[in-house]
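Can't attach files on this board, so I'm pasting raw text. These are the components:
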Amino acid sequence: MKKLVVQKYGGSSLASAERIKAVAGRVAATREAGSDVVVVASAMGDTTDELIALARQVAKRPPERELDLLLHTGEVVSCALLAMALGDLGHEAVALTGFQAGIKTERRFGRARILAVNPHRILQELSAGRIPIVAGFQGFTDELDITTLGRGGSDTTAVALAASLGADRCEIYTDVEGVYTADPRVVPEARKLKDISYEEMLELAFQGARVMHTRAVEIGAIYNIPILVASSFTDAPGTLIHGEVDMERRNKVRGIAHDTDVAKVTVLGVPDRPGIAAAIFEPLAEAGISVDVIVQNASVEGLTDLSFTVSRNDLEKAFSLVRPVAREIGARGCVSATNLAKVSIVGAGMQNAPGFAARMFRTLASHNINIEMITTSEIRITCIISEDRVQEAVRALHRAFQLEKPD
Amino acid sequence: MKKLVVQKYGGSSLASAERIKAVAGRVAATREAGSDVVVVASAMGDTTDELIALARQVAKRPPERELDLLLHTGEVVSCALLAMALGDLGHEAVALTGFQAGIKTERRFGRARILAVNPHRILQELSAGRIPIVAGFQGFTDELDITTLGRGGSDTTAVALAASLGADRCEIYTDVEGVYTADPRVVPEARKLKDISYEEMLELAFQGARVMHTRAVEIGAIYNIPILVASSFTDAPGTLIHGEVDMERRNKVRGIAHDTDVAKVTVLGVPDRPGIAAAIFEPLAEAGISVDVIVQNASVEGLTDLSFTVSRNDLEKAFSLVRPVAREIGARGCVSATNLAKVSIVGAGMQNAPGFAARMFRTLASHNINIEMITTSEIRITCIISEDRVQEAVRALHRAFQLEKPD
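---
Top answer:
Structure tokens for the assembled complex are below.
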């Protein structure tokens, strides 16, 4: 049977007419090599930001439904152009909006989740010998309204399509050559990984490695879709995200992630009794604010301090929701800070090797970097530190765990 | 019962964020004055031309389906922005694509005709107290593909919506203040008409007065929808296009139209026998080329010359279709010319007053302007003349028929 590949091209890969023609050439080459191919396209270059800027010029608070309708046009434009460019190369292609491609989502504008994919039209076009070019980042509701999936949503579209089509592979083409042991702009000796497990990629992505959208990796993991992350600007091999974890590479730190989009809220002098945490976090969840790290100190005389981090964009809203709750529950007060960052070490199997945490803390201490908060998962240890020390911390950890050395 | 008005705003009325806010103010004022209102919006400024230019950068011959998908985004963008701007003024508005608004068309990309309007969603939004903002110029096919209605198609969307909603009036807001007795750029003393009949407007539009799209006027005539043409930049009263022809104004020339988008094809030495005209014009019709004026000379020794005009864009295609036919039927040859223009006088009831044609021809003769072809309808006389004399002809005819004088 013919192989089926889903290829996703990001905005920087499609930033100009020239780039669109170059991408068309890559798609054509895949097809000519014998695979069936479905393409998912992002909006050209900075189109989405430009449309948001336009929205802000006409309205102080653009309604979310209208904003999604506005933004979804960016991907439709690049899909139509890419289909045209493929036609010029002698390959019949058909551009499809998220609606036409059957991407059904929940009715939550700005960050809708995909509920189902009905690939009927895509399969029909494939069997007619055409290359479907699907607008990423978007879907539609029961009411036939247009939704968007949030930043990076085109990755999610691509992996969800690959899952629903039973594709052999999903390829994410972007402006970086793959997943690195750390951000190469911070660590010059950072090394590109040949492959990485879904779990490791998830932790890296969630901790700030912006190579791929978290939800896309989750869907890949659930449906076991191998995902190649590679550059559309070169022919370098890229990084394969997949399920098989090489035994040799277990119990190793695989990458260092960092993120400066961190804001902290601390509720001071919280009475230490059941239901308090729920009272604080329920309003945040209802408002759709993602809380990242949560730390509660040991109780002293029945009072404790409770800190949590959110993305900086959400700080104002989070603070305004928490303040009245703090008053109600009799806390002493609330403070917030934005001069923070987080740095994480990630590697499958770290939970079985206790030395990692110690080495991480020792490395930071030897650079005189103070740790404000600590949180861990099975395959990750994260420290919240001062923002102005984060690059130094990443470089020090990269060296301490010898990530520049080949696997 | 509440009045219902459909308002259409053209591209120049929506060319910037500032203009969109100004239009939102006009829509809000209509609503606040007590009418229900449905808005139809064109793409901002030169968006459509810019998208076409982009398409030409990626493909020599952009496929029509993909071009329509590309172009339809322009109207979606302006609708979403206008809905946001209305929200900012305290009016809940909902932007709808042609598909969401139920504009069903035939599957003919680039110039689809509307087959039906299903106003279900619009009525639902109106009854919920929201202002529907509908993307003009676009519709969808049975296969859920996006079509466009051709240049000026937003006018058609507006009048078709007005008809299907049983609106009291359709208002077309543009960058001119109404319908003039002639193009004011050519005739400085041209006068704005207070009202005009559908038929007169049709002839003026068809003969080159670019104020309104012909198909929109036709639909208005069929469903008897009064259409106001006015400027969105001023509060001047505009021109009402409607069915009641004032008796006082019959038997008068109402306007002079001119058009330089004229190309002529002449088939020389055509054998004068039945079926020849059909052989020549059938292939043009099949290719979707509109033939305007057709003139066949009296036959001399069984041979005749047959001339017809097409728009300049269609000349190359028309010529390539006619040449082989001319050879087959034994004609002497084919020639074409593009240095022509047409000038028309239009007025209901002209057919009953034979003096009009004579005065038109005498006026042109007194300016030493040669008439190449003549064609007439019940309410119009059109002369094909040399392009470099057309402005002089329009000015002379405007004076000869005293159009500067009030009705």
